[in-house]
Amino acid sequence: MLHHIAHHIARRTATALLCAATTVIATGCGPAGTEAGAEGTASATGAQHRFDTMTPEEIDRQARDALKNTTSMRFTGRASSDGRQVEVDLAMDVHGSCNGTVGNSLGTLRIIKKGSLVHVRAGEDFWRATFRRGMTPEQAEEKVALFKGRWIKPPRMMSQTLGRICDGFDVLVEGLGPASDGNSTREADATVGGRPVAVLAGRTASETTTVYIAKEGKPYPLRGTVVGGTAPMDLTFSDHDEPVDTTPPPPDRILDPTKLR
Fold first, then answer.
1. 156: closest CA among 11, 48, 36, 23?
2. Which of 29, 72, 124, 249 is the one with CA 20 to 30 A from 184?
3. How would DSSP label each residue in 29-73?
């Protein structure tokens, strides 16, 4: 279910960023209805769509079947779990490669990962939160000046920690849909990014999960929201099966902290 996605993204991202902020870059950490943004729409032609003869569970099953062989996707939006809030704009694939940004209260981190090779870049706020632990303000600002705007090639342990942000593509894809428990309802059709979608909603006493499924082309989920509960989220899903750009930064823009000693 979608709240599992919110928990997965929020937990992995927050853990990785918090580890980065407490290890001073060189030591690493151990393991670890129609909604806003979707516009209501009616059929432009009046023609019946195949979804119109299906139950919500059948539409959901078609979306899940379409996702089975998906090799990559871009996740954009915000998620939270257990008070950890993150914003994400991240393209990921089945091989664990990724390219994009993740952010929380510490700031925003840009990450490019291919295999075990990880490069990250962050702004002043992130590095200041990182270096102010265990350093004088003057020492921290010296580090911030050195790191800001630079791509960093983290040491192995930290690369593994930050790289976990990009793991679990299959888990995320598996969760894209309301539970097929017979309680889903079909709401009014809408559009996401200009594309017509069927809208499925599942409700419990504490939360409403809504999935927006493409009516044109493959029936991929294009957006998912969870309102209420402990893991609210609002994510859009795009660039299905598009190659993830893992081109490394230019060598003259990369700083290797292990060579500063």
1. 23
2. 72
3. -----PPTT-EE---SS-PPPGGGGS-HHHHHHHHHHHHTT--EE
- 206 or 40, which is more confident: 206
Compute φ and ψ for 111, nearest 5 degrees: -135, 140
Closest to 201 (Cα-Cα) out of 186, 214, 215 = 186
Residue 107 neighbours by CB distance under 10 Å? 17
User: Who contacts 220 (Cβ-Cβ below 8 Å, separation ≥6)?
Assistant: 63, 66, 67, 70, 213, 214, 237, 240
CB proximity list for 243: less than 8 A, separation 6 or greater: 72, 93
pLDDT at 176: 66
Tell me if 184 sits within 8 A of 178, measured CB to CB: yes
Encoded amino acid at 100, one letter: G
DSSP, res 101: E
- Residues 84/66, Cβ–Cβ less than 8 Å: no
